[in-house]
């Protein structure tokens, strides 16, 4: 089909129906693959010719056509699409007797393939009768002949025209906000209704102007503003970015909570723009009243760099400038620079060119700096961990050049063991067990046993080494201690699986050094670091008159927590810093948990429009929102010689998918939703009145409601609407996740000791 002629002022939808009809008449009479232009764009088309039948298969994923919309950053949180198009022509004496065309689009959530949608578009053309038509018209050019038929005809492209449908009877942004605001109060943030309201609010913000958005933020009270900031930032439109930047004043320390929520929402952005990173870089160069906000801003810049680089945007001017700023502050740090913050930014950015810098800081520095650098290296894909990286990690673990802290050495060992270690690397690690500080011996044994138990990639090499009796003997594998490391499955399914890992390291005097809770989600092609909560403590030996471990004699008293949430490193939170701060906190401690992160996060964000070859356009939207409240606490009792750490995770999730075909005179579609609320608690209790001290770890999940529904609807221009709904609700039973048998035995002792002491108090 060379040309398509229609009327200039004809509605776009009518023209697309005609384009769909004209495209049906395009076929080749020989087998093979060609590149053709039709209503779907410029596509690869394969023809199969057999006698009087021609089959035409169009590869829809090859079509070049203007596309609108966006997808989620992480593959596990995204939506997969499968599209097929086939047309069968039946010919009789080279005339078309019938045409049957069918086009299918299937959409499903990668993390739950049961949740999805399907659009089927069919065309059927049959020869009904044969009769005489108008005679031939003579002319030098086709265009001239067309004009003689109707002077109003003009030539148009065969590729479909984009037709926008306007939302009729939609409430204003302010009206919508009034209908959902009751669910957005802080105390309701662990409920599924909060996540549902958050998603619907984002959809409305995306249609709103800057002025409409500002009307809401300027009129609401303080307790609702953080949730409004989450939604406005997550909308990711030029109008929403302009509005929030006009509202927030980074020179005003009193609004630091809102500034932090804005920055974290930027970090979790599903499809960040170059303009967003450019804006944050500009803010960094300006005055910022709160130093913690400046730190958060730098860390979030690192996350945006990675997201833009993952979408082939590493050479964008804003990305180049941000990378130069962060790397420059580490290559030539100034006296007042907080080096750790820039290392945390690299922990998010994961730039290959930053690895040499991280190696330098990991090996030559100490304390937080060295620890942050080595944990940043741990987040890289093993393919980036070259021989130079492994050599440095081996030097750190075996302390070839200088003495390092246990936390740094154990992380270095974990990097070696997770990056295709050689036989000798594994053997040297095993031979070191027995020569390490007391608790580190036990910790490294647990790491080795965990690799074998979960059949991790290096397990084959470990098993080979264990055949050598010098590495595998009773003296090494019977070392006492309370430190441990354990991994297990939360879920194992056909779509995705998720694992948890709990490791806890103590100092030789029995005080917590580090506890680390990780949750990973993965499928066949991708993985997601869904969560990490680390509680660290150091320099607390003086409280119980104990001797610090080797390499930790000069460490300041410190305790704090840091978190990774959906692959984004958050700014660490400090419980106390220094001996004076420690004593004041201990005397005033209430045991109440400290909030690590609280807010609303847009997880899945998929929006695409598809041109159907029959003429109408289809739109598909999937959004997934998370309402989250993570807190961590540490209680310390000198009287009972007991410490307890508690990490509480309260989560509610809501996902909605909507597929719609708007055919101008009829709108038809379907909406599918799923929602759940759950809580995951990690409790670690330590009694250090004896050695080896008693340690009990617990990881509990409460019973969780799970609901999903499906709604199909059709609506006519007259306003009449037909809907059909069905749904299902169930309770997912709560459970206590099994850890190793040694932990179970220890818990029995801890709780029996606690009950004995309480009964004999008088």
UniProtKB/TrEMBL annotation:
Matching SUPFAM superfamilies, A to Z? Lipovitellin-phosvitin complex, beta-sheet shell regions, Lipovitellin-phosvitin complex, superhelical domain
GO MF terms listed in the record are:
lipid binding; lipid transfer activity; phospholipid transporter activity
GO BP terms in the entry: cholesterol homeostasis; lipoprotein metabolic process
PROSITE patterns per the UniProt record, alphabetical: VITELLOGENIN (PS51211)
Report the residue ranges that make up the Vitellogenin domain in this protein: 1-532
Q: Where in the cell is it found?
A: Endoplasmic reticulum
Give the record's keywords alphabetically.
Answer: Disulfide bond, Endoplasmic reticulum, Lipid transport, Signal, Transport
Q: SMART domains of this UniProt entry? A: LPD_N
Which superkingdom? Eukaryota
InterPro entries recorded for this chain? Lipid_transp_b-sht_shell, Lipovitellin_superhlx_dom, MTP_lip-bd, MTTP, Vitellinogen_b-sht_N, Vitellogenin_N
Q: Name one Pfam family in it.
A: MTP_lip_bd
State what protein this is by name.
Vitellogenin domain-containing protein
């Amino acid at each position: 089909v060379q040309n398509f002629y229609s009327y200039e002022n004809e509605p776009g939808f009518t023209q697309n129906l005609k384009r769909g009809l004209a495209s049906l008449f395009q076929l080749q009479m020989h087998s093979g693959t060609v590149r053709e232009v039709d209503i779907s764009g410029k596509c690869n088309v394969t023809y199969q010719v057999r006698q009087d039948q021609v089959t035409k298969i169009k590869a829809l994923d090859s079509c070049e056509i203007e596309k609108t919309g966006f997808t989620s950053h992480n593959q596990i949180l995204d939506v997969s699409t499968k599209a097929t198009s086939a047309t069968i022509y039946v010919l009789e004496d080279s005339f078309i007797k019938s045409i049957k065309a069918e086009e299918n689009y299937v959409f499903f959530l990668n993390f739950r393939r049961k949740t999805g949608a399907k659009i089927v578009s069919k065309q059927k053309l049959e020869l009904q009768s044969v009769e005489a038509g108008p005679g031939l018209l003579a002319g030098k050019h086709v265009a001239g002949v067309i004009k003689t038929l109707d002077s109003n005809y003009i030539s148009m492209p065969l590729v479909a025209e984009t037709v926008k449908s306007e939302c009729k009877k939609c409430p204003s942004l302010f009206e919508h906000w009034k209908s959902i605001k009751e669910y957005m109060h802080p105390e309701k943030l662990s409920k599924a209704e909060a996540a549902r309201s958050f998603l619907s609010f984002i959809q409305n913000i995306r249609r709103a102007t800057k002025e409409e958005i500002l009307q809401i933020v300027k009129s609401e009270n303080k307790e609702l503003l953080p949730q409004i900031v989450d939604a406005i930032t997550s909308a990711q439109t030029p109008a929403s970015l302009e509005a929030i930047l006009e509202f927030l004043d980074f020179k005003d320390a009193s609004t630091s909570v809102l500034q932090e929520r804005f920055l974290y929402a930027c970090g979790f952005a599903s499809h960040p723009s170059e303009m967003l990173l450019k804006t944050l870089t500009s803010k960094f160069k300006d005055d910022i009243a709160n130093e913690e906000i400046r730190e958060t801003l730098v860390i979030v810049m690192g996350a945006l760099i990675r997201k833009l680089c993952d979408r082939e945007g590493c050479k964008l001017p804003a990305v180049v400038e941000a990378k130069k700023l962060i790397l420059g502050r580490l290559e030539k740090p100034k006296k007042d620079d907080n080096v750790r913050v820039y290392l945390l930014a690299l922990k998010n950015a994961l730039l290959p060119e930053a690895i040499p810098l991280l190696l330098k800081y990991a090996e030559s520095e100490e304390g937080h700096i060295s620890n942050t650098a080595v944990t940043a290296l741990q987040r890289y894909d093993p393919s980036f961990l070259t021989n130079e990286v492994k050599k440095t990690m081996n030097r750190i673990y075996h302390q070839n050049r200088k003495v390092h802290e246990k936390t740094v050495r154990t992380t270095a060992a974990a990097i070696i063991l997770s990056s295709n270690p050689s036989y000798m690397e594994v053997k040297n690690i095993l031979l070191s067990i027995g020569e390490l500080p007391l608790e580190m011996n036990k910790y490294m044994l647990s790491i080795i046993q965990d690799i074998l138990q979960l059949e991790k990639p290096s397990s084959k090499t470990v098993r080979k080494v264990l055949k050598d009796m010098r590495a595998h003997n009773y003296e090494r594998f019977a070392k006492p201690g309370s430190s441990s490391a354990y991994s297990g499955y939360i879920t194992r399914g056909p779509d995705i699986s998720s694992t948890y890992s709990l490791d806890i390291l103590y100092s030789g005097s029995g005080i917590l050094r580090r506890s680390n809770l990780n949750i990973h989600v993965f499928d066949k092609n991708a993985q997601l670091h869904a969560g990490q909560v680390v509680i660290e403590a150091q320099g607390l030996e003086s409280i119980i008159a104990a001797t610090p471990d080797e390499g930790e004699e000069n460490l300041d008293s410190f305790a704090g927590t840091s978190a990774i949430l959906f692959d984004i490193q958050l700014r660490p939170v400090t419980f106390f810093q220094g001996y004076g701060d420690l004593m004041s906190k201990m005397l005033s401690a209430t045991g109440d948990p400290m909030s690590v992160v609280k807010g609303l996060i847009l997880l899945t964000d998929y929006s695409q429009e598809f041109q159907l070859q029959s003429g109408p356009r289809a739109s598909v939207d999937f959004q997934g929102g998370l309402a989250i409240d993570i807190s961590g606490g540490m209680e310390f009792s000198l009287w009972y010689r007991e410490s307890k750490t508690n990490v509480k995770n309260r989560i509610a999730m809501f996902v909605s998918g909507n597929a719609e075909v708007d055919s101008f005179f009829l709108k038809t579609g379907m909406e599918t939703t799923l929602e759940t609320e759950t809580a995951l608690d990690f409790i670690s209790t330590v009694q250090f009145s004896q050695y080896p001290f008693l340690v009990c770890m617990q990881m509990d999940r409460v019973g969780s409601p799970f609901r999903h529904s499906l709604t199909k609807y059709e609506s006519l221009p007259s306003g009449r609407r037909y809907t059909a709904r069905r749904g299902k609700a169930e309770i997912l039973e709560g459970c206590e996740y099994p850890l190793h048998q040694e932990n179970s035995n220890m818990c029995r002792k801890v709780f029996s000791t606690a009950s004995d002491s309480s009964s004999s108090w008088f």
